[in-house]
Amino acid sequence: MYKLSHHDLIILLASMSAMLIFSRIASELGRKLKFPGVMGELIVGILLGPTILGEIAPDFSHSLFPKVGNVSIALDGIVKISVIMMLFVAGLEVQLPLMLKQGKAAVYTSSLSMVMPFLTGFLVAWFFPNLFEIKDEKQHLLFSLFLGTALAISALPVIARILMDMNIFKTRIGMIIIASAMFNDLLGWLIFSFIISFMSGGASTVNVWYSIASIIGFGLFMLTLGKKLIDRALPWIQTKLSWPGGVLAILLGSCFLCAAFTESIGIHAILGAFIAGIAFGDSVHLNEKAREIIHQFVTNIFAPLFFVSIGLSVNFIENFNWLIVVIILVLAYVGKVAGAGIGAYLGGFTKKESLAIGFGMNARGAMEIILGNLALNAGLINETVFVALVIMALITSLSSAPLMRKFLELN
Amino acid sequence: MDLSRLKKRASFPFETIATAVAFSPRLESILAETKRISVLFNTNLVLIHIGEKTTEKEETLDKLIEKIGFDKDKYRIIWMDGDPVDTILKLCKLNTVDLIILGALEKENLFKYYVGSIARKISRRAKCSVLLLTNPSVSPKKFKKIIINGVDNIKTIHTLRAMVYFARYEKTKNITVVQEVNIPTLAMTMADSNTAPEANKIKKELVQEESIKLQAMLDSLDKMDIEVTMKTLNGKPGYAISNYAKIKNADLLVFNSPDTHLGIFDRIFTHDIEYVLADLPCNLLIIHSRV
To answer: Hey, is the C-beta of B56 within 8 angstroms of any chain A C-beta?
Structure first.
């Protein structure tokens, strides 16, 4: 069995310590300025990574965050586990009944806010592949599908936070935005899992149908029989096992088990974690305190490690291409605002309210960055497109609140 | 079918009550409960049987009617063939029924739950109020502990008015209006960049906002001489109140009629009244306010 050497362990602990402490400082500063926490974490990654520290003190940067060797592998494992746990907690908050309750307006808003940005991204990538330096035939279709999905996804945590800060969370507008964002996330991650499994499984028809059947079959099982099992087991777990350790261990254990299962059948591990999260989160028996603890644990320990690692792996200056950034930004705004806005208008909202809903749903935040990172690791996109996606995620998140305020005429 | 009489018709006073006659072992107790409520509100009564009219069935029903003591001028029996749910719903509309009383099991088996029993299907689709009796008795008792779902919805004020009317006739002194507070994504949002006092403040404000809305609704309600108590519960809508009704041994749980057509997805991704229909904690009254 390979083990980390004494020196490797020191480096690993020092690098994780730097990632956690500096990202916490940056997040606290960002909080004062009302910036999303993820922004501070990304900036720390950029400062510590090849973009800044790597240029100023390359030896120090490489010794603290080595690109090869045992420490690099250990850190990669931690980052991968972080992504799986982040998808699990994202799933915990997806409440499908909320969408069913909102009726016609939610159906129009959620479907159009998914379809229009998806089509916008897909068609531009399909007809202008050269813009994104896509040459491979197989890559062409997958990249087009990916760009559509990347533009269609929303960032539930950022959106919920904006609505709470604006004091419109429990209004009809707030609930429509939340329900639609949940639907976008669910469908977005399903499509993305399909793209990723297709990417690794090859382009044969058998593989496509196998992937689709696996994703649908696993989802249906977890959300029906799996959910019933969870409903029966959770009360027992929460009363008979030690609190909160028992329920936390079972939740995370189940998350990893589902992730391992989906990875083993050729679908990405994230889908297993995400759907396990939905199944657990939908249970009426999941104690609110347990939900809070797991969110705190993942959001404040594992999410910073992941977001800092992004800055550590990509040079944001070298890979900054203003044309791609502008194209992706324009596509993101046009597709999402028009889609969600038209949907809301058809659902009975006024023009101004519909635009506010469109801009509310436009925030991409952390979810976009996770999606982009997974696509980058799978070789689906290059670093230039990834940097553009990160910038788009940050700009859409920052612009959501002021634009919503403007159209809702709030101070 | 002329449905103009039904349009915007208030959910109370009850003028016509109907019940479904199924010739099950619980028939006598359901008829006894129906008679009590019919006498209480001084209403006309329609007894509906969907199925073949046979001499044996007629004799059984006549005997029970005589035993229970229905007022001859106040009731009539309709025998009709057809799909039970559709035919009962159609007859309720044709006869301008204000309340239909049905017997229902507390819990259905998994298959029947997803497919839907007759009583539950009628509860989801009826254009009049529905009373589901879980434990009907040949010696009916009045509903003493009444719990009403005080959800933030345009229909709730109508339901509350109907229940003040109901409680006055029933001579129930106190009704409890329950508000369920559930803030989706709260745990996730609070985990991201909030100090503990900030998180508590936001939570408190969101709960308070809900309470203020319900309090304003209750303040605007003409309560007559009925005492109305407000109770706030944390938990998923539908499930929290159902659990509370079970713990409190409530006699009657009251809900607004569903806003949308409830289908199988609403049973798979259970929410609101579907939690109650999945496992009835006590008798359930669904007020259809026709707004």
So the answer is: no
Whose CA is closest to A282, among A61, A95, A144? A95
Here the CATH number for the domain that contains residue B24 is 3.40.50.620
Type of residue numbered B178:
V
- Torsion angles phi and psi, residue A20, rounded to 5: -75, -45
Query: Do A89 and A276 meet the contact criterion of CB atoms below 8 Å apart?
Result: no
pTM of this prediction? 0.86
Cβ pair B253, B282 in contact under 8 A? yes
- Considering the domain architecture, whether residues B10 and B114 belong to the same structural domain is answered as yes
This complex has an ipTM of 0.78
Sign of CA dihedral A364, A79, A319, A188: negative
Full set of structural domains in chain A with CATH = 6-78 (no CATH), 85-408 (1.20.1530.20)
Predicted local distance difference test score (pLDDT) of residue A197: 78
Integer Cα distance of A299 and A24 in angstroms: 11
DSSP, res A380: S
Shortest distance between the Cα of A96 and any Cα of chain B, in A, equals 6
On chain A, the residues whose CB falls within 8 A of the CB of B206 are: 164, 169-170
Helix, strand and coil percent figures for chain B, each rounded to 5: 40, 20, 40
Q: Is B213 found in the same domain as B228?
A: yes
Q: What is the pLDDT of residue A360?
A: 92
DSSP-derived pairing of the beta strands B129-133 and B283-287: antiparallel
Compute the average pLDDT of residues A318-329. 95
**Quick check: B266 contacting A, CB < 8 Å?**
yes
pLDDT over 90 percentage in chain B: 64
A20 lies within 8 A of chain B by CB: no
Please tell me the predicted confidence (pLDDT) of residue A190. 87
From B188, B265, B269, residue closest to A157, measured CB to CB:
B188
Distance CA A295, CA B74 (A): 61
Do B46 and B20 contact (CB within 8 A), yes or no?
no
Mutation pick from B110, B111, B193 vs chain A, by most beta carbons of A within 10 Å, is: B193
Host domain of residue B43: 1-140
Predicted confidence (pLDDT) per residue in A57-88, tens digit: 999 988 999 988 899 999 999 999 999 999 99
* Residues B100 and B154 both lie in one domain: no
pLDDT at B4 over 80: no
B150-177: pLDDT as tens digits: 998 889 999 999 999 999 999 999 999 9
